[in-house]
Design goal:
This protein is of the alpha/beta class. 24% of the residues lie in helices and 23% in strands. The chain contains 6 helices and 9 strands; from the N terminus they run βββαβαβββααβαβα. It has a 9-stranded mixed sheet with strand order 3-1-2-4-5-6-7-8-9. The longest helix is centred in the C-terminal third of the chain and has 13 residues. The chain is globular.
Length: 230
């Protein structure tokens, strides 16, 4: 995300531990993924992640960050006048008080999405939240961390995202799609790893196999990273 589209919240006074979260950044931009793609969105990026996916593009969120009172986070979100809020990471559920933030955002009337790795139990997440949950394919290096019981906690408005870095990943994803009847649970997204699989190639595999999935590219990378020559 370009610097001009990011705004890190300034430090807040000390608050009770039960009402604080460690935050990497809060910024106002365009949603680049999933079913809310294209909407103006405030992103709340929590610090920390127990996974180390090979293709991760947010490694800067693994460490550091600053503590912020949850009520101050809500105040910063409100300042931007948006309907859509995305809580992301890292892995936001690695901080248990993320559940408090999600509930308060829903109570405030926002359309809330949660980007989660699929490695942590999603059962306690407020049902009003749209969960965008990864399943890690083999080339991520973290497929052994998939918590398959999470599939039973997905609702029709949720989404499963599989990031694909090779033909092997695609064939694994196709097999999981059938074995777990993923498309009958919720929307399934197949996304290519930039520089590893050509988007057109993945699209043609999906068409050839007539898969009931939604192909996606990361809009924010098209808008900012490519323009910056990254």
């Amino acid at each position: 995300m370009s610097a001009e589209n990011a705004r890190v919240v300034s430090a807040t006074p000390a608050s009770p531990v039960a009402e604080r979260l460690r935050i990497t950044e809060i910024f106002h931009s365009i949603q680049g993924e999933a079913d809310a793609i294209g909407w103006r969105t405030v992103f709340v990026r929590l610090t920390g992640c127990p996974l180390r996916c090979v293709w991760c593009d947010t490694e800067y969120s693994f460490y550091g960050g600053d503590w912020h009172a949850i009520d101050d986070i809500l105040a910063e979100v409100a300042r931007h006048g948006v309907r859509h809020v995305c809580v992301t990471g890292g892995e936001p559920l690695s901080q248990k008080r993320c559940l408090i933030l999600l509930k308060k955002l829903c109570d405030a009337g926002y359309d809330v999405s949660l980007e989660t790795s699929g490695a942590i139990d999603v059962a306690p997440v407020d049902p009003r939240v749209r969960k965008v949950m990864d399943l890690k394919a083999p080339d991520s290096g973290e497929s052994g961390r998939n918590l398959w019981s999470n599939l039973g906690h997905l609702l029709p408005h949720d989404q499963i995202k599989i990031v694909i870095a090779s033909r092997t990943d695609y064939e694994w994803s196709r097999a999981m799609l059938e074995e777990h009847a993923l498309a009958q649970r919720c929307m399934v997204l197949f996304s290519p790893v930039h520089g590893a699989v050509e988007p057109r190639e993945l699209a043609e595999w999906i068409i050839e196999d007539k898969l009931p999935v939604r192909f996606q590219l990361q809009l924010h990378k098209l808008l900012w990273d490519d323009a910056a020559g990254k």
